[in-house]
């Protein structure tokens, strides 16, 4: 008889992390366990939905929440916290009216039923998915529209970023750019989705100027959240999804609810070379939000991605805080081997455990690498909220874990190198993440030793409040506070 495993969390604890944070704050963190390493100098910027309701009217999905930037600045063994909402015109309008005025992509309709949403195709730029500091610009990113620029010191919203007019109004700019560690160029993309979709690839130089762009039409609807980068290729997995526009136009469903995975339909691999030439290959069906890394190896491209067997959307009329984790499709870290000579593609599972938010040493982007760090459930099987961080040795298969269960819930891990030199050991650095601590109803900034993540944290910084579950962020060695 197989003995049932006790849950690693309680739903009540997990739900607490989905409360809005309504205040903007700025303070030195004075409650610290352990010691902040003196070599840790710079700023961790994080983005995610800070408001999950408007005056008590709840958004239907957390991904529709208003973007809020957090900045944790480390200097001389101390740390400073600040947060600010990205004050888009839509955010300001809803705050002034005290009610939901716009439809959300994933689960939010305007109150009043389908009649109030009929033919309303305007989507609110929530600027809530990622934040990156590049070329002296701090940019809040949401993949369906233009970036918003903020002052890195005050976090004040400065307005949309058009890169001196090279990005036109209505254009999309990815929430997942990739930084070339060799050149310092930032590579990004935008998608105009439809029966035939247009993918535009952008290059932003180290000074923050958009210097190159090229566009290519591809057949089919493109739902692309992320891409992978190598020196010679920009790699996309075109998820085999269909978009039924009619319920969205008629106000019956949100855009995200109108997307479904096509059964028994291969995933397309889109390979753009340096000149923009497109090669299309096919692989096993599945759905991918995030890629871990890619690199070239002889005549092969190795691509590591978190793959789902189905599109993990919220079912209609289901409160996301009451989702049944037993029915949620788990993501698993997979490796694709793409043979450029034959066009054949194979796939294997690297981590057979529900996981998301992979990260690596930033110097390894597009290069061969050994170590990956990823958020995972606390138990080896089943599904649940992410409560652990795993380190995977891709050379040996060895796995190490740091679990925050039963009352801690993780955010995306970020790797910060101890030494910016390219000669440093690949795992010599820290993993920094925000943890929601349900026991204290507050969030912690946790610093782990990347070479020994199973050990006790190097430091745990207790914030004065909670931070709602976030999405993505990046570290810069520049200190802003």
UniProtKB/TrEMBL annotation:
Asked if the Swiss-Prot or TrEMBL record annotates the protein with the keyword Protein biosynthesis, the reply is: no
> What does the note under cofactor report?
Binds 1 Fe(2+) ion per subunit.
Which terms are listed as keywords in the entry? Iron, Metal-binding, Oxidoreductase
Reported cofactor(s): Fe(2+)
What superkingdom does the record give? Bacteria
User: GO molecular function terms here?
Assistant: carotenoid dioxygenase activity; metal ion binding
Instruction: Kindly give the Pfam families that the UniProt entry links to this protein.
Output: RPE65
Is Iron one of the keywords?
yes
Q: Could you tell me the Gene Ontology terms of the biological process aspect for this record?
A: carotene catabolic process
Chain sites annotated for binding Fe cation: 176, 225, 290, 472
Classification via InterPro entries: Carotenoid_Oase (IPR004294), Haem_d1_sf (IPR011048)
Protein family per UniProt: Belongs to the carotenoid oxygenase family.
Q: What is this protein called?
A: Carotenoid oxygenase family protein
This protein's species is Tumidithrix elongata BACA0141
């Amino acid at each position: 008889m197989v003995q049932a495993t006790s849950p690693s969390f309680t739903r009540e604890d997990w739900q607490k992390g989905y409360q809005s944070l309504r205040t903007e704050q700025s303070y030195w963190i004075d409650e610290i366990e352990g010691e902040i390493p003196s070599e840790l100098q710079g700023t961790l910027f994080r983005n995610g939905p800070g408001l999950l309701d408007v005056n008590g009217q709840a958004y239907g999905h957390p991904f529709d929440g208003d973007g809020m930037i957090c900045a944790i600045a480390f200097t001389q063994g101390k740390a400073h916290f600040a947060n600010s909402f990205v004050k888009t015109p839509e955010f300001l309008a809803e705050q002034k009216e005290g009610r939901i005025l716009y439809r959300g992509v994933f689960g939010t309709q305007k109150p009043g039923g389908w009649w109030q949403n009929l033919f309303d195709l305007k989507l609110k730029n929530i600027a809530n998915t990622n934040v990156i500091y590049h070329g002296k610009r701090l940019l809040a990113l949401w993949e369906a529209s233009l970036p918003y620029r903020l002052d890195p010191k005050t976090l004040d919203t400065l307005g949309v970023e058009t890169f001196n007019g090279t990005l036109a109004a209505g254009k999309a700019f990815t929430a997942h750019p990739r930084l070339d560690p060799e050149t310092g160029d930032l590579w990004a993309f935008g998608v105009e989705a439809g029966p035939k979709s247009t993918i535009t690839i952008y290059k932003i130089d180290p000074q923050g100027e958009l210097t190159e762009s090229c566009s290519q039409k591809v057949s089919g609807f493109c739902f692309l959240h992320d891409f992978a980068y190598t020196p010679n290729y920009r790699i996309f997995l075109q998820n085999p999804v269909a978009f039924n526009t009619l319920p969205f136009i008629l106000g019956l469903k949100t855009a995200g609810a109108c997307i479904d995975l096509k059964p028994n339909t291969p995933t397309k691999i889109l390979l753009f070379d340096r000149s923009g030439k497109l090669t299309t290959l096919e692989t096993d069906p599945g759905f991918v939000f995030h890629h871990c890394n890619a690199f070239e190896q002889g005549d092969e491209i190795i691509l590591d991605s978190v793959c789902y067997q189905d599109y993990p959307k919220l079912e209609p009329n289901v409160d996301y805080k009451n989702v049944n984790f037993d029915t949620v499709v788990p993501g698993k870290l997979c490796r694709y081997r793409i043979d450029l000579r034959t066009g054949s593609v194979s796939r294997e599972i690297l981590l057979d455990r529900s996981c998301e938010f992979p990260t690596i040493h930033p110097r390894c982007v597009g290069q061969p690498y050994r170590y990956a760090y990823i958020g995972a459930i606390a138990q080896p099987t089943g599904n649940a909220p992410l409560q652990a961080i795993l380190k995977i040795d891709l050379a040996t298969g060895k796995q190490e874990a740091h679990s925050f269960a039963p009352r801690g819930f993780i955010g995306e891990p970020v790797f910060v190198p101890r030494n910016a030199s390219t000669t440093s050991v690949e795992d010599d650095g820290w993993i920094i993440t925000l943890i929601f601590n349900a026991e204290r109803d507050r969030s912690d900034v946790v610093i782990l030793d990347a070479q020994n993540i199973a050990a006790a944290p190097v430091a745990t910084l207790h914030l004065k409040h909670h931070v709602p579950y976030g999405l993505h962020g990046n570290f810069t060695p520049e200190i802003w506070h």
